[in-house]
## 1
Amino acid sequence: MSQHQRVIAENIANGETAGYKARTVAPEDFSALLAAYGGDNGTPRVSRPRVTLSSTMVALGAQPTDGSGGIVLDSDTSETKPDGNNVTLEDQLLTLGQVQTDYSTVTNLYRKQMSLLRVALGQG
């Protein structure tokens, strides 16, 4: 989610840059995981997880595996200015609000799951 917020911030910062195209984070593709789960002989197996580098990890010297980081041009833009820039502040703020809502939802689900585990262990 921090990567998505960073991309939105870059879009907003370049809102007046001629020719700049809005970017977004590519959605996760779980098809490889589903294919790996079935396996060749029908026995379940789980593929190796992908690690996304945070800014702290990069600051400590971690190197990304590919340069794109899942960032692609945003195809869902509402307008393009005469200079070729297609960043719209309203679109970026709506996207930022959705990212914040998603983060809040995931955090609340995690908190509730931890609470259920504590109750199950007799610590709640």
## 2
Amino acid sequence: MDQQKPVVEEVPVGTHFDYPADQPVTTYEQERRELLARYTRFAQGRGRLLKSYLIRPAGSTNQLVVELFDATQAQLIVTCATLQRGGAAGVWYAVGTLADLACFLSPPTRNILVLPAEPDSDLDGLCAIRSILPVWPGTDGFTSHPESEPPL
């Protein structure tokens, strides 16, 4: 079998999205992009080096999009504009996206899930089992539970 490596290309932050470019942007996708832009401003305001990547897995013609990677903290960041679990735009999709993309980045990588509001304890538990840190907008930018280390 041919042993190929994935092709990873760095692209400007905010130029590529995990959403089909040939389809109209839905309300959910617009809200998700706004949450992503807000988190980007928050991280940049803290002096973080942010990157985005296009990844073509070995032997594939499809590209995966890493919309946001915090190179300063080695954090893979995915946004979800809902606290709903299921559906094409739910938390399960975001959790799967984190798992898939993390395979292509140099470990150790911390997985961050940016949500629109504080998750309930059940959703928190799902994130904990998958080693994902949920964060959400707070009074001073973004926040997470106090026991999360290191701080955002």
## 3
Amino acid sequence: MSDRSKKLGPRVTVSVTPGDYDTLNTLANKDDVSVSWVIRRAINEYLRRHHQPARALRRPAPEKRPAAPERT
């Protein structure tokens, strides 16, 4: 494993439309960075914008049924 892959972590593979790929290339070339860098930045911004505090994963509490009427 290279030092770079240790630094960045696991890899993710995605497919994009040809138009999106062209746009990513244009943005990368404009800023003199790689397409991968643009995508990592976009993911980082998305996650910051949509981050919600971690909640314990648990099943929802069962709904309480109304008490049955007393029989007389």
## 4
Amino acid sequence: MTTDAEISRSTASAAAKGTRWTLAAMVVRQFGRLGFAVVLARLLGPTDFGVAAAATVYISLTAVLLEAGLSSSIVQKPDLRPQDEGATFWALAAIGLAMAGVTVLFSDEIAAFLDVPDLGPVLVALAASPVLKGVSNVVGAKLQRGLRFRAMAVTEISGTLAGGVLGVVAAELGMRYWALVVQQVGTDLIVLVLWFAAAGLPKLVVDRAALRHLRTFALPLVAAQMIGYGSRNIDNVVVSRFLGQTALSYYTVPYRIMLIPVSLLGNVANRVAFPVFAKVQDDRDRVRSVFLRITRVIGLVVLPAMLGVAVLADEFVETVFGAQWLPSAPVVQALAVTGILQSLTTPGGSVFMGLGRADVSFRWAWVPLTFVVPAFFLGLPWGVTGVATAYTIATVALTPFLVRAIGRLAGFGLRTWVRSVLPAFISTMPAAAAAWVVHIVARQHDFPAVATLIAGLAVVLAGYLVFLRVFFPPSFREGLAAVRLLSTGKLMKSA
């Protein structure tokens, strides 16, 4: 007979191995997408890139509706039945088809509202994406529920690389912003085929109990994610509508940079921690331990990385995207703090879902929508930098409330959360200040941007590690241990 302790060890072991695979998949996924965006940005320039930037808002919407939401019920439900798979599959397929139909019908109106005339035909072509996502995500959720992170990772890595190659080839052939369509639809199609090959077709039977579970658990979660999507993307709509297509490009490029740690570290944590929290949802101490460990590790990486990029924003933008993109450098600086805070709090979503509290996620999602969206309009008079700064100010104001909401379920307070990230924050400050000195001196002597960027980042890394080692040795050792455990696949096991 299998004991609870044996189940817990088995779950931790599977999650530990999955951390490496998930991290590898997210690294390839995020930097592959960013690499393609860099290529496209350099080939098209700020004006034409605005079409791709506007289309990315649509792609994000399909991801919110179809990549989590309803499919999360398959991961969270303790006693999954074939009927639960069937209900989720048909619901997602219907949503995907409905989204495709709405997109085709209103593509011209959306393009006119955003003031991006070339967007209409692009949206019609991208309407295939939600259909492909809708029929494949139940299979992905089954893999996640079974902690089959290797299969998920191999699929996503293959899809990202193959889709990216297709997109780059299309861009080189002169297809302009249509290269984004080739890349996105190609990636979704490849993932669909590989996920079906890994997990087989989902069960297609349905009953009332399955539909009732979708209504009580999944629908509030979908609603919360839709609200969150609105909070995160209305800024793009506001910028495009009131500041223009070129301004949207200058805003979107830094926004992608800000999302790197959120998507890479936060989503790695969510993918691995969500099924773990679901399996140990009655063990509050375990939930608290895992969440705080994740928060500390994310803070040790994100704080020096994001603040280093903020200090060296001019050199970073010129080196990566080209001198024509320098007007976006102040936006990089303004969004750096938002990137840090969202990275640190993103794993809270896995606490809400894993503990079956989609209702809390739904209720709390209204808070940022209520306060962040007005901030975008308040920042408009100062252009894209004003919108980005307003976004950061609103995020700073709301983060303590979000942490408290997570802590009420996981069993910790705001002070405990602050203490978990304080060593990384304190150690980053003198390192970032030293990098700022490098930036000032380099500008006075007209050093090349790439040389200044390399030197500045080296100063940030060295100063941060030295300060952390001298003044916070336990945190330094924890960081080294996290790297070692991650390389051996035991990070989640030790939490």
